Amino acid sequence: xxxxxxxxxxxxxxxxxxxxxxxxxxxxxxxxxxxxxxxxxxxxxxxxxxxxxxxxxxxxxxxxxxxxxxxxxxxxxxxxxxxxxxxxxxxxxxxxxxxxxxxxxxxxxxxxxxxxxxxxxxxxxxxxxxxxxxxxxxxxxxxxxxxxxxxxxxxxxxxxxxxxxxxxxxxxxxxxxxxxxxxxxxxxxxxxxxxxxxxxxxx
Amino acid sequence: xxxxxxxxxxxxxxxxxxxxxxxxxxxxxxxxxxxxxxxxxxxxxxxxxxxxxxxxxxxxxxxxxxxxxxxxxxxxxxxxxxxxxxxxxxxxxxxxxxxxxxxxxxxxxxxxxxxxxxxxxxxxxxxxxxxxxxxxxxxxxxxxxxxxxxxxxxxxxxxxxxxxxxxxxxxxxxxxxxxxxxxxxxxxxxxxxxxxxxxxxxxxxxxxxxxxxxxxxxxxxxxxxxxxxxxxxxxxxxxxxxxxxxxxxxxxxxxxxxxxxxxxxxxxxxxxxxxxxxxxxxxxxxxxxxxxxxxxxxxxxxxxxxxxxxxxxxxxxxxxxxxxxxxxxxxxxxxxxxxxxxxxxxxxxxxxxxxxxxxxxxxxxxxxxxxx
Amino acid sequence: xxxxxxxxxxxxxxxxxxxxxxxxxxxxxxxxxxxxxxxxxxxxxxxxxxxxxxxxxxxxxxxxxxxxxxxxxxxxxxxxxxxxxxxxxxxxxxxxxxxxxxxxxxxxxxxxxxxxxxxxxxxxxxxxxxxxxxxxxxxxxxxxxxxxxxxxxxxxxxxxxx
Amino acid sequence: xxxxxxxxxxxxxxxxxxxxxxxxxxxxxxxxxxxxxxxxxxxxxxxxxxxxxxxxxxxxxxxxxxxxxxxxxxxxxxxxxxxxxxxxxxxxxxxxxxxxxxxxxxxxxxxxxxxxxxxxxxx
Amino acid sequence: xxxxxxxxxxxxxxxxxxxxxxxxxxxxxxxxxxxxxxxxxxxxxxxxxxxxxxxxxxxxxxxxxxxxxxxxxxxxxxxxxxxxxxxxxxxxxxxxxxxxxxx
Amino acid sequence: xxxxxxxxxxxxxxxxxxxxxxxxxxxxxxxxxxxxxxxxxxxxxxxxxxxxxxxxxxxxxxxxxxxxxxxxxxxxxxxxxxxxxxxxxxxxxxxxxxxxxxxxxxxxxxxxxxxxxxxxxxxxxxxxxxxxxxxxxxxxxxxxxxxxxxxxxxxxxxxxxxxxx
Amino acid sequence: xxxxxxxxxxxxxxxxxxxxxxxxxxxxxxxxxxxxxxxxxxxxxxxxxxxxxxxxxxxxxxxxxxxxxxxxxxxxxxxxxxxxxxxxxxxxxxxxxxxxxxxxxxxxxxxxxxxxxxxxxxxxxxxxxxxxxxxxxxxxxxxxxxxxxxxxxxxxxxxxxxxxxxxxxxxxxxxxxxxxxxxxxxxxxxxxxxxxxxxxxxxxxxxxxxxxxxxxxxxxxxxxxxxxxxxxxxxxxxxxxxxxxxxxxxxxxxxxxxxxxxxxxxxxxxxxxxxxxxxxxxxxxxxxxxxxxxxxxxxxxxxxxxxxxxxxxxxxxxxxxxxxxxxxxxxxxxxxxxxxxxxxxxxxxxxxxxxxxxxxxxxxxxx
Lengths: 203, 372, 162, 123, 103, 165, 367
Ligand code: SF4
Ligand code: SF4
Ligand code: SF4
Known about the structure:
The complex is a heteroheptamer. Chain B contains 12 helices and no strands. Chain B is an all-alpha fold and 372 residues long. In chain B, α4 (129-150) packs antiparallel against α5 and α9 crosses α10. Chain B starts with 23 loop residues before the first helix and ends in a 9-residue tail after the last helix. The longest helix of chain G is centred in the N-terminal third of the chain and has 29 residues, at 93-121. Chains C and E meet through α1, α2, α3, α4 and α5 of C and α1, α2 and α3 of E. Bound molecules: iron/sulfur cluster (SF4) (3 copies).
């Protein structure tokens, strides 16, 4: 199979692409020196809602927590425990979560399964940004929470909460599938506390 | 109110009892809405069925926590998707982007206007029924193409191109394999084709059935021909940039198309609503579900073909066989018009087996790459 | 009256779509408008009781020709730069208007012999008789087949690489 | 017969109405502030595996199945002849059969030529 | 006024004129082809209308319309093939820039 | 291998999947049914016995991560330093068990349970009282065979999935 | 067709469903065909080699777990072998046999994932993958029984193991070994003759023998190209010379051969496990090793046949408690070198298949 007459060069030379990428990484590093605070301010407050709103909320929250479609974000080892929980033995699909969307537009949940390095950070951030609201993040594993065993490395982001707000932390290295499932159910509880009147704000 | 007084039209419908309440048009409007609801309900059911079914094929359970047996899962998905943010990429061709789901979904729904759900229970018994189905379904590929093109994403563009390739290759086998059925029934009207099936046409036209099944699954992009949304290659394919309800419409379209193909197969090859004991509509639904189950059984088993293999299959296998089938059927119809239908069954099955085997031997389709 | 409504609606849409095809700069959207135009023409066939023809129209024009056109658009450069009008715009407009005036004049001033008979129904079988039956257009059909053969050969010769 | 198409038009209207509703309901809900709407430049950029797109997003494509499409069109037209023939074959009899066979064989010659010339090959 | 033959003929004339204008004035070869398709469609409408209103029993107009479709298909196929061929050689489909004599 | 027969491979494959349709799903429905983890399970926490701990700091030194923070009283009481703060950041710990292996006084054990998901970052940091063993925080038998013996045997998929292929 | 269309650059990865992690390929496409392809690494560069320099020799073992996280046991083995070589420690006999058993179990587990993911890349809707995952779960159960963790075991120690195997381990292993061949046959029925899989993989992504040797590929990738090279035979460690097993090789070097070789290797691994189980002696599992290993200054290289190929650890010691330098020869990375040569001229779909057939783990590629 031969290729003739085809321009096999890149529209931009590879070097320029890499330089642009490096600038982006540096800029992101600069911006993410502090962890993003956990989106939890409203968690403990008790909402005063009337009955109609409550039942509407109940339906909506039920729907949203029953069909959390995770986006694909599988950087490292934890991914295989995530896949294991997708697999037959633990079967995330019981929760309606088997539809792994590769496109962030259609996903609701980001399970950060693995170590995040700075080179990857802009991509993960972009994917998070591209997810349609409402969206949630589960920081899975020590790497997701703090950078884990690699935290002292020069190249590892110390925790996903530097670049995206994290809703649930699931410790473990890697967390067992059950631990992840427990984390997901914790997230379900969090979603159940949402209210339609404040959907527009990040909660 | 009469549609065209000058032309002396008469209509015959047995669909509903004549004391159906209300004005004539309201009646048909209600019937349309009922069909729409029925179709949507079936589609929802299919989504549930497929997720559960594939789960069982994969020795797991599938959605079972949302409502009894997970039956409410599609509804939960629908509500959730409705409340998702709607993203339109800045670079997209916005008008086309918005129109695409509409163009893809509506024609698919329109197919059900001519499908008889039970004796006479169809919206319009068209004289050109089969041709109508074939024609109208070609519109929805335009919708998919629009989606792929307008998203201004290279992946979706690739998917759009694959869409064109599929249509170009599989339209002809679909149409030609249906022609065999038309030959036997001597009519294009779906209701009359059902009436003509004293024995299901799958027995009389096994080759046509096989070809149509393959070609139709390719045309609606079911696995193993799901190149448009091949998630291991093209991430999400043509709907990669779609979110919220627009995406849901594509998702629905996919299953509605599967439902449509199942319904067409049930009607044209399996004897439609005919069957003993049970009420006709139940027979119909049962057959449709059976065909669909075969579809997701295949989906849960087979890997995906590549685009050039996809086209080679259509052009070098399906198309010639469909033509041969057409000619053979025509000769049969003319030569033995009186022959008992049952006598033709083994003959036709034998012809099918012989043709398929020789042809695939001829092209060495079995081993290795499809080097034809 | 239903027929009247259908006709007017279809006519307006088809004229609008045709105008869009001609005046839109974005070629891709123009092609989509062309699809719409084809569809409405199929609708008009239906109002004329030519249902087989309508289905054929959708099958050939929407299902095949427009796909081919879209494909060519994708293949050739300048989707975005659009389809500018040439220098001949004003004379072309003039010619088109002139033609329309002449045609309309001719149409409106010819005393057509309208037959009162109802249209042939169903058309498919009757068409088959006309096309393939004895004393029909079978020769023309075969010539059409030769034409199809010719386009396959011609197109392949043209498209093939040198 | 025409009344049947009236029903189809009705169904078309219902279908379009339904689809439009589903498409526009989220828009309404967004105005009611039930659905969040927080556009940002990253969200509206193209998704390409997390990276920024290299070069233009609309490209001229080289697809290699142009010849297929041309043959397809010819065969599609053939189908339009074959369908009425198939419906009415019993009445047309052998005369119609032979006519159609000639028709098919002429077009098949073209198809075989295309095959022979490797136009049905993905190059 | 009930819809009659004249309506259809005038509609046909309108579409034909639009197509004619497009075919004459446009520079993009694909758009020209599209315009020609509109013209052929217009002719088809007239054909079928004649068939319907003047010889309703014979369907001659419809048969003709089928043949016109065949011709249209042929025209599109060859037209697009030529466009592709020209484009391959000259990288343009702007008819004003295509000087066939030089090609 | 011969590939003579067109379609037989596909049919064989379909038969395999069809046979699986009639097998029992191997799924464990987590919140209701739980797998028993290994007797040596390294759960997502540590269990620390304050009574045995001498604040020697061996565990902290053995930890490759430096997760364990021990603050003792400045002066020994009864010849012993009192641990004022014993802190394990489970968000940082990798549950490697090296600290358990190192502890000479058998006061540090791996936890047995794993359900420790939290909403807030600071909640995953375990300190003194949170580390003590209790009914909700059983210790696992990792490095402690005696403890392991007392724990229920592990659920094995191989026992459950008896069907031979 | 020599149409002057544009070729365009497309990012495949890092967040792509079938790049096995975060691999990125910058491809230049001409329509569907790959005109050029450039792998971009580093999206999971975690600095394992650097981190190893600041940890004690024992403390590095958890790090090696995370190298090829689908084959932690093999990584542990390679590392402890290197340290043992460096510090001139030898493990007791029982530990050696156990290591063989565990390494071979790990090979089966890793190949199960490799084949499953590969078929997934060919477009199968997860079913073969999940079947294989089921068997992998069984292996993980066994490992969990030993070490308490499902994925990253941290079970081997310098000079042996940290604890002996529990009593219930061997019966369970026996059961697994007797059941597994049936399952492998089932995979064969499901996949090996599937026409679509054949069409997708036969003759696709051929890696010629000389090229494979030139890029120093190893593991199934090399053997599929017909080179009979296996470190277990060529340079036996852990007493592999005491076992009888074959080295399956391919002939064509295409994706299908790589798939077959992996399936065959699983069978061979089972053979080895059976033999090792029979010969397993009793005794201690750990020789006496000081708490902090302090090898004499010097260097050592130990390599094993990991599931993905030759995994080597090169350690330099300066007689302190931490390695002075640790370099890892990662088979995934080196096998990837051939990717460009294998893919150019094929289609996007083939690119994914070829990539899947190499079987990499990003943790090992980027380290
Ligand atoms: S937390 Fe542990 S298992 Fe998860 S990615 Fe990090 S190192 Fe790997
Ligand atoms: S388990 Fe490992 S990481 Fe956690 S505290 Fe103990 S030694 Fe440190
Ligand atoms: S090693 Fe044991 S005794 Fe010493 S401080 Fe740690 S827990 Fe306490």
